Every structure is written in structure tokens, then in C-alpha cells.
Amino acid sequence: MSVLEEKRRLAESIIKKAGPLAVAFSGGADSSLLLALAREALGEGVLGITVDSPIVPRRELAAAKALAASLGVRHIVVPGREMELSEFSSNPRDRCWFCKRSHLAAMLEAGRKEGFPALVHGANADDSMDYRPGLLAAKEMGIAAPLAEAGLTKAEIREISRSMGLSTWNKPSSACLASRIPTGSPITAEKLSAVEKAEDFLHDLGIGQLRVRHHGDTARIEVTEADFPRFKDPLFRACVADFLESVGFIYSAIDLKGYRTGSLNRPIDSINNISDSQ
Description:
Blueprint: H1 3-18, E1 21-24, H2 29-42, E2 46-52, H3 58-71, E3 74-79, H4 86-89, H5 95-113, E4 118-120, H6 133-140, H7 146-149, H8 154-163, H9 189-204, E5 210-215, E6 218-223, H10 234-246, E7 251-254
Parallel strand pairs: 1-2, 1-4, 2-3, 6-7
Antiparallel strand pairs: 5-6
Helix pairs in contact: 1-2, 2-3, 2-8, 5-6
């Protein structure tokens, strides 16, 4: 038996011991594999729960619903209330801790009402290497992470997902829309909506992995190296700029460093103050 197969069986064993259970299901690669393994291990003894709120892209919510249906898993959507928390909306560095606690509490309550007292989430073994206050919140609340407990890395999760025929096996990692707003800048429904519309527009134009970072009246666009050539076309740039202006961004800029996660972990004031320096 390979090491990967041993890890998979260990994850399934952890799930069986915890079941019946609810899965905190976002539709990403990790939680999708967790839901699929739980379906295999527990049959109807699993419930998928997804939180819906302004920080969740509509595309992601629709994808989660479709995947749960394809797996034959009962799935419910519960409202998130993190926007009502000043500790979140004020956008401190540890906002994810407050958001995660709020979401997990909502899912725990919903699961218990449906007869599923246990809740698990889809963290992986690599996540502990990064700054993730949301994981701390889950640990504090006693929410288990079977994939991480089994030692499954992101790459291994993708490999198992591919072998199981899951469409999420190569799905890029994603973060909530609040991650597009610089730390310290208040999170509002208007900002989140502008970012989502901008990203949807660029996706519809065929841009792959991307982020639109919100810097007040400026949109900072991050794309992968493969998509940089698209922006050499003046007509394409004009089309993008016009649309971004229509959703509230007076200025639009391409980040020359390209797409990367965590680019808002340090403050960027120069973009916000372009007009002041001229």
C-alpha cells in the first residue's frame, strides 16, 4: 500500500469514527474531497453546509451547490452574519478569526438542528505553515480537520481528487472577497460587490486565475504570466477600464508582479495616492 493510500484510509477512518457528521463545505478542493470521502464512508450520514454572505462569490456558491448535488449529498446553505461584526468589518489583521468563528457557529447550529451534531472542516497539512487565524478559530472550537489529521498535503488532496474524478482536483485555491480589501480599510457590501463584478467580468473575458484588489477608487489587477499579453491590446484595456469605471473604479492598474496570494498583507499607499502626487 502506498503512503498516499495509507493517508486516504486514515482520513476515512477518522471520518467514520466522527460520523454522522456535517462538513463545512465551500466547494474548494479540500472541502470537496472531504465531502466526497465522507459520502463514501458514511453514505447518507453526511450533510454538506455552505455559508452564504456578501464575502462569498456567487460563482463559488453555485459551484458548491452543483458539486454537492453531483455527489448525492444532502446540502444546505445558511446565512453568514460576519458583516454584522465590527471586529470583522473594521478589517483588522485577524479578521479571519472572527469570521471563521461566526461561520462555524452558524454551521454547528444548523447541523445540530438537522441531526448532525459533529462538524468537520477541510484544512490540509500544509495550512499550518501559513498565517491562518481562521484555523486557530476552528481549533479553539474543537472542529476537527480529518484531511490535516491524516497528514494529507494540498498536492496529495489534488491527486486523490483526480483519481476519484472530482472536478475540483485542479481548482485554483481561492479566498473570500474580503481578502481583496487592504487590512485596515473597512469592509463594506459595496466594495465586495464592486470586486466581484470586476472579477466576474475578467473571468468572462477568458482571464484565468486573477485578483482585483480594492484600493479606494483604484482597482489593482493581478493576473498570471500567461494572461499578461492580453493587456497589450489597447482595445482590450479600454474595455476593461470602461467596465471597472462603471462599477466604481476611476482608475485601473495592472500589478507588474502578477497574481500572488497574500499581496495585501503589507500596506500599499502609493496606489491610493496617485492623484495626490501629480
